[in-house]
Structure formats: C-alpha cells, structure tokens
UniProtKB/TrEMBL annotation, chain A:
GO terms for cellular component: plasma membrane. Pfam families: BPD_transp_1, OppC_N. This is ABC transporter permease subunit. It is found in: Cell membrane. Belongs to the binding-protein-dependent transport system permease family. The chain crosses the membrane at residues 54-75, 117-142, 154-174, 180-197, 242-265, 285-308. It is a multi-pass membrane protein. GO terms for biological process: transmembrane transport. It comes from Ornithinibacillus caprae. Keywords: Cell membrane, Membrane, Transmembrane, Transmembrane helix, Transport. Its main location: membrane. Coiled coil: none annotated.
TrEMBL record, chain B:
Belongs to the binding-protein-dependent transport system permease family. It is found in: Cell membrane. This is ABC transporter permease subunit. Residues 94-291 form the ABC transmembrane type-1 domain. InterPro entries: BPD_transp_1_N, MetI-like, MetI-like_sf. CDD domains: TM_PBP2 (cd06261). The keyword ATP-binding does not apply. The lineage of its organism: Bacteria, Bacillati, Bacillota, Bacilli, Bacillales.
C-alpha cells in the first residue's frame, strides 16, 4: 500500500475495511524456491511428446513392430521361404493367421521377416546419413567462410541429382542386395542432413556460451562435440525420423520394380509385387498385409516425426 | 536477377555433367561386354558389333563420343530389342508419360491447394481434421500400394473403372488418382500451414478492415503469399511424380516411358537404362532450374538476399 498518493487506491481502500488486510511475513526459505520443477531440455521434450496422443500411438506401433520383427519369425512354426504348393492361397485362418501366398508360404511369417528387412534398411540408412551429415555439415558450418562456400556448392550440385534415379542406376550396376541398397540410398541421401546440421551449427556458433567456451581456450573439436551438436540435436532427430520412412519407401519401391531384395527373400515390397496377380483373383490377403504394414509404418514414423518436431522446439514451451 | 540466373545455370550444367559422367563410368564398369549373350557367341560378329558401337576404342575416346551423342540427343540403341533405339522408345513412350504427368500435377496442385485452404479456414474444425487425416494417409500410403488397392476395389470389385491400359479419359482416373494423392497430401499440408501463418499477418487484418469480402481477402491477399512454399517444392514433387510413373505405368500397363524403363531394368538392357536415366535426369534438372528461376521472379526477397549473401 505504498501508492497511497494514487487517488484510485485511496478510494478503493476506503471501501474495504482495514481488518481485511494482513501482513505477510517474508519467508527466507521460500524466496529461492522455483515454482515448477527444473526440467532438462530432454525431459521437457519428452513430457510434451507424451501429451501428443497421435505421436505416442505411432511410437507404440513402432515398438510393437520392432518386437514382432525380432520374435515373429521365431515363434511362427513356418519357415520363411518354405513353399507348400498344395496349400497355396489359403485364406487367413487359425493355422495361417495372415493366410498363404501363391507358393503356399505363410504370409504371417513373411510379413515379420519383411519388417526386419524394412526396418534394418530404414535405420541403417538414417544412421549413415546422420554420421556423414553431421561430419560434413558440422565442418562446413563451423569453419565457415571459403570452406563453407565450397562445401555448400558441392551440396547444391548433389542436391540437384534426382535421388531415386541415381539409386536405380547404382543398383543396376552394383547388383541388388541388402548392402548395395543401403549404399545406394546413402550415396546422395546424406545431403539433406548435412544442410540441416550446417544451418544449426551456423546459428548456434554465434551464441555467447560458445564464445565463453572459446575464451577458456577449448579446442574446436571439443566445442563441436560438447557445445554445438547437443544443441543441434532436436532438428537432427526430427530429420532422422523422416529419413527412416523415406528409406523404407525407397526399398519397397525398388523391390517393386525388381531392384530390391531378391526372391525368395521377403521384403514388403517384394511381397506386394508378388501379389499383384493375386488380387485380380480375389486373394486380397497376400497384398493386404504387406500393404498395411508398409503404410502403417510410414504413417507411424510420420506422426512421430511431426510430434517430435513440436516437442523438441523450445519456442513452443509453455 | 541475371547474376542469380547465371549462378543457377552454372550449377545446373555441372549437375548435368556429373550425371552424364556417372552414367558413363557405371556403364563402362559393368563386367563384360554388352554383347556377351548367347546369340552373339561368334567372335567375329562380336568384334564387329563392338566396332560398330565404338566399344573397341580407349575409354577417353568413348567418353568424348558419349558426350557428343548426349549433346546431340542421340541416346543409343537397345540391345534386347533389335532395331530399336532409345530415341524410338522415348518418342513412343514419352508423350503418354507426359500426358499422365501433366494431368497428375494439375489434379494434385488444384485439389491440394483447395484442401489446404479449407483446412486453414476451419482451423481445428472437423474439415481441418478430415483434410489433414486424408493428407497423412496420402503421405503414408506408397503410390504403388494405393494403385493396387484402387484396382482391387474400384476396378475389380465395383467395376466402375477399367482395370488397365490407356485409351479414354475413364482409363486415366485410377492411375492419376494413385499418382496424385501423395503430392496432393504434401501440397495440402504445406498450404494449410503457410495459410495459417499468413492469416495472422497485419495486412490481412488491414484488408479485412477495408471491408473486403472474405473471398477477396483469401484469393487476392492471403493465397498469393501462401503459395510461395508450394512453388519451392514443385521440383521435388515433379521428381516424385516422375519416378512414380515407373511403377504406375507398369501396374496399369500404360505404354509410357516408365514402363519401358522398368522393363529395361528387368531385362538388364543397359544402353536403354543409361539413356533413359540421362534423359530423365536432364528433364528433372532443367525443371528444377526453371522452378528456381520462377521462384526468383515471384519472390522479390530472393534478389535482396542474394545481394547481401554475395
């Protein structure tokens, strides 16, 4: 009630009886207490991600998918490539949960086997992209100046190359196999990641805490590792979650045009391609299961990526 | 602006050169001669064939000849289909693929923008959720899966549309739908997010305050700026549609370039694969260049940034 000279306060006070006011003692212990629990960046992001139901259901689906990819082929009583011609095109039943295909192979077993291949291709491609992207983008962004200029020109040129066409070209020559697919997907795939890392590094390296670190005499490699990368991690993780589905799509696409994993091995793309003829005769399950799992995996990664993008953005913190 | 164009032109030429050189290196590094198959087992015939296609010359001469043939748009012969050149296949297949591509782009852009605007105007309403639901599904379902599902449901079960081939507008519906859904979804999401951003700007409030009808505010003031990001991703979308035609044409038995391309991959018809790849790449790279230039013309900020950046 310091502002007694303010006429409006006087008027207000005159209407309120004095005994309604009470002095609150200043509590020395309470003064330093933070009103909400201190959260690290990652805890905070996780809390926000949990609230996003769509992203969490995507995450849940992916965890189930990974578990099934590991144990599915083991628990199933059928062999992945065991043909059983008398039992071809069996509709889903208690014996064959997802039915059988044109060669009498169990679609349930093949679906999880395909999940192994799709997830492996997706994660490996993302991992390699991140590794190359962080090194290239980190150097380009941190060094700046002429180095950055030259490195960015190279990226600009590589970025113009049509991605899938280069992949097709490489696979035609290298011959299709799991290793060559991953190589072909990452030869030009890292460019997007490198651009993002560079952009982040360029921005963060001008912050004061980096300057402080420098003035203590920290080596460049340590600054990149300890100061720049942890702070650039958000966009990198988001880009990674979006790389995985695009690699899975590319693998399925390549298998579909005959450049992917070779028969008899199952990948979702191979299974979809095999069942093209079958759908005309009404054996829908041979197409439905691989199609469902490709689409749902891509859907799960997309919503998880969207959710992470929101969760990892400190600007959206409430 | 001129400087920006020249810079883009230079990058385009280098990218083209890289893809042409890459194709050549890969073609040379394939083990064995292209004529090693059984029908040309005669050594003299093989030597003649190699001379005819300049395969007996040293690599640098071959490379120069290759560059020359590419520059004059001669993409070479097919090995597996006698008396056919890549140019023949292009001449026959490309117009059909082009038609499919153009119709797809128009459908994708128009429906994507409409969906995006509707979603933005009814932000967090039922239309918004529905449009974004369609968009997420469209991004998640690969085009070749969508194509097979469409055939199964709309062609085989309901018999609304023909199963395959390419002759009447009715035949176009399913392939275009399968191909356009993905790009449409991307455009819809992008239009929605930029539209939401633009609608909060002061100049929109100003336009409203002047008493313009909501329709005019959206069409004349908001949409123009909301469409800029759509122009930027046109290049990527074009690449997606182009590679999409490979599988779609195969599934629907459309006699376009993509079908020949996939056939040549399956038959390992190397000259056709290489020739078509170069042609497709050149087409895409030139398209990307045009999109960049268009963006530079449409967005005045590009010029300013460029001056500061240099």
């Amino acid at each position: 009630m310091k502002q007694k000279h303010n006429p409006r306060h006087i008027k207000l006070q005159s209407q309120v009886p004095d005994e309604w006011f009470r002095w609150k003692e200043r509590d020395q212990n309470q003064a330093e207490v933070v009103s909400r629990p201190s959260l690290s960046y990652w805890q905070d992001a996780w809390k926000r991600l949990v609230k996003n139901k769509l992203a969490m259901s995507g995450l849940f689906f992916l965890i189930v998918l990974v578990i099934m990819a590991i144990i599915g082929p083991i628990v199933s009583p059928y062999e992945v490539n065991k043909t059983d011609l008398p039992n071809q095109y069996q509709a889903p039943s208690a014996e064959h949960w997802f039915g059988t295909d044109s060669h009498g192979r169990d679609v349930f077993t093949r679906t999880w086997y395909g999940a192994r291949i799709s997830l492996f291709v997706g994660f490996m491609a993302a991992l390699i992209d991140v590794t190359i992207g962080i090194i290239y983008g980190g150097i380009s962004g941190y060094k700046g100046g002429r180095t950055d200029n030259i490195m960015m020109r190279i990226i600009e040129i590589l970025y113009g190359l049509p991605y899938l066409l280069v992949v097709i070209l490489l696979l035609v020559v290298l011959g299709p196999s799991l290793t060559t697919i991953i190589i072909a997907l990452t030869v030009t795939g890292w460019v997007g990641m490198a651009r993002i890392v560079r952009g982040q590094v360029l921005q963060i390296k001008n912050y004061e805490f980096v300057l402080a670190s420098k003035s203590f005499g920290t080596r460049s490699s340590r600054i990149i590792r300890k100061n720049l990368l942890p702070n650039a991690m958000g966009p990198i993780i988001v880009q990674m979650t979006l790389t995985v589905p695009s690699a899975i799509f590319a693998e399925a696409f390549l298998s579909f045009i005959g450049l992917g994993i070779q028969a008899p091995y199952a990948s979702w793309g191979v299974m979809a391609n095999d069942s093209l003829g079958a759908i005309l005769s009404g054996n829908w399950w041979t197409l439905f299961f691989p199609a469902f799992f490709i689409s749902f995996t891509m859907f799960a990664f997309n919503v998880l990526g969207d959710g992470l993008q929101d969760a990892l953005d400190p600007k959206l913190r409430k | 602006m001129l400087r920006y164009m020249l810079k883009r032109l230079l990058i385009m030429v280098i990218t083209l050169w890289i893809i042409v050189t890459l194709t050549f290196v890969l073609m040379v590094s394939i083990p064995g001669s292209p004529f090693n198959s059984d029908q040309t087992s005669n050594e003299i015939v093989q030597a003649n064939l190699e001379r005819h296609y300049n395969l007996d010359k040293p690599y640098h001469i071959q490379y120069l000849l290759y560059l020359k043939s590419i520059a004059t748009l001669e993409f070479g012969p097919s090995i597996k289909q006698p008396n056919q050149t890549v140019n023949d296949l292009l001449g026959r297949g490309f117009p059909i693929s082009f038609e499919l591509g153009i119709v797809t782009i128009i459908v994708a852009v128009v429906s994507g923008i409409i969906l995006g605007i509707l979603a933005a105007l009814r932000h967090n309403g039922i239309i918004d959720y529905m449009a974004m639901g369609i968009a997420v599904l469209g991004i998640s379902i690969p085009n070749f899966i969508l194509a097979t599902l469409l055939i199964q449901q709309l062609a085989v079960n309901l018999e609304w549309f023909p199963v395959a081939t390419w002759s009447s507008p009715k035949h176009m519906v399913l392939p275009v739908l399968a191909l356009a859904t993905g790009p449409m979804a991307i455009i819809a999401r992008l239009t929605r997010s930029t539209m939401l951003e633009v609608l909060t700007q002061d100049y929109i409030k100003m336009a409203r305050a002047k008493g313009l009808t909501p329709w005019k505010v959206i069409m004349k003031h908001a949409l123009r700026n909301a469409l800029m990001p759509v122009v930027t991703i046109m290049g990527t979308l074009l690449a997606g549609i182009l590679t999409g035609t490979f599988v779609i044409e195969q599934i629907f038995a459309i006699p376009g370039m993509g079908k020949y391309f996939v056939e040549s991959i399956n038959h390992r018809d190397y000259p056709v694969i290489m020739g078509t790849t170069v042609f497709y790449s050149a087409f895409l790279i030139i398209m990307l260049f045009l999109v960049d230039i268009a963006y530079g013309i449409l967005d005045p900020r590009i010029k300013v940034n460029n001056k500061e950046g240099e």
